[in-house]
Design a protein that fits this description.
Blueprint lengths: L2 H11 L2 E6 L5 H16 L3 E6 L16 E3 L8 H4 L2 E5 L11 H6 L3 E6 L10 E4 L6 H12 L6 H14 L10 H11 L5 H9 L4 H12 L2 E2 L5 E6 L1 H6 L4 H4 L14 E8 L2 E8 L5 H6 L4 E2 L3 E6 L4 H14 L6
Parallel strand pairs: 1-2, 1-4, 2-3, 4-5, 5-6, 8-9
Antiparallel strand pairs: 7-8, 9-10, 10-12, 11-12
Helix pairs in contact: 1-5, 2-6, 5-6, 6-7
The chain binds guanosine-5'-monophosphate and manganese (II) ion (MN).
């Protein structure tokens, strides 16, 4: 039996499901959760979506019915023991669920991971996906297509379209295959208006985000090889601009728009800890680079969180490590 049929069987056999995803969820995370929710609801299952983080404000439109709950230890105390199946979407390391990690680790529920990142940590009983997929949303599409577990609906198509559109960088990243475009064509036939979705995700930010971007852009520097561009975002700048984590999304990509730059880095302070985002061009595996700091991700986009560290202590090390990943001139 292939993994999709196996997933179908697990779903049909069980009654209560908990869906969750990574900290600071993106549209692939939220869209995949909601698409899976709508599948399970069509099958009359009990389903909860509980996340460590709030849904970023620019993605709230996806959760029109306010299905997603934010994890609260007091309210959700029993959830890990009362569900038959926990489905973790769009994450490859269990510590990415932050406050929910302990509960999930201890839970006796069946754990299914649906993901498309490199090198998943083995914390699950079943894995569906692989790094060949452009988005977790594409895996969910494939699941429905192959098993016909439920018919596609407008609601499911909308979530999957948004998931794939965003995780492919609006259809430009490496894994944007002709197959992805065929999937998108099929989803569009449900009446999705690309301009509208794009506008909701990317063109409805707070005014303060643009001011913040201005600050970050003026902090950009090149290392001595001129192949690494890096940006810094301090707590102070974030406070001054009333920034939230969602506001920072996408800033690091500007590093790669500089001629000759192969690795882009954004380091930002986050309530006493640090978040580092890495981006690369070509074959430079920034998922491995992030791995050196306890993080991970994709070949060309990755990140890590560092507790109890300040920028000054880590910057030189990050640059040195990044330099060791640069392509050697032949
Ligand atoms: P971003 O820099 O946009 O936050 O994340 C880029 C990619 O790196 C995403 O695919 C995300 O899943 C991954 N990523 C970001 N932060 C972490 C982290 O702390 N740990 C791991 N394993 N992956 C991360
Ligand atoms: Mn994803």
């Amino acid at each position: 039996m292939n993994v999709y049929e196996q997933l179908k069987e697990l779903i049909l056999k069980n009654k209560t499901f908990l869906l969750t995803t990574h900290v600071n969820p993106d549209a692939d995370a939220i869209g995949s959760e909601l698409a899976m929710y709508f599948i399970l609801k069509q099958l009359k299952k009990n389903v909860y979506i509980v996340n460590h983080s709030f849904t970023p404000y620019n993605l709230e439109f996806l959760d029109e019915e306010k299905i997603i709950e934010r994890y609260d230890e007091k309210i959700h105390k029993k959830i890990f023991s009362e569900t038959d199946v926990i489905i973790l979407l769009d994450l490859n390391q269990i510590n990415r669920v932050i406050r929910m990690e302990n509960g999930i680790r201890k839970s006796k529920s069946i754990k299914i991971c649906i993901d498309h990142h490199q090198d998943p940590e083995k914390f699950y009983d079943y894995f569906v996906g692989g790094s060949g997929y452009s988005a977790t949303g594409e895996i969910i599409y494939e699941f429905i297509k192959q098993t016909e577990i439920v018919p596609f609906t407008n609601k499911i198509a909308y979530q999957l379209y948004t998931a794939i559109m965003t995780d492919t960088g609006s259809f430009r990243f490496d894994r944007t295959t002709s197959k992805v475009h065929r999937i998108i064509a099929e989803l569009l036939d449900f009446g999705i208006v690309p301009m509208e979705v794009y506008d909701k995700v990317y063109d409805q930010f707070h005014f303060s985000r643009i001011k913040l971007l201005g600050n970050v852009l003026s902090s950009v520097k090149l290392d001595e090889t001129k192949k690494i561009a890096y940006m810094i975002l301090t707590n102070e700048t974030q406070k001054k601009n009333n920034a939230v984590e969602a506001d920072v999304d996408g800033f690091v990509n500007y590093c790669l728009s500089i001629q000759g730059v192969e690795i882009g880095i954004l380091i930002y302070e986050l309530n006493g800890s640090l978040k580092i985002s890495f981006r690369s061009k070509g074959e430079i595996p920034v998922n491995k680079l992030a791995g050196e700091f306890g993080g991970g991700g994709h070949l060309n986009a990755s990140g890590a969180r560092l507790e109890n560290t300040i920028i000054e202590d880590v910057l030189e090390k990050v640059l040195l490590k990044a330099q060791s990943y640069l392509r050697k001139e032949s």
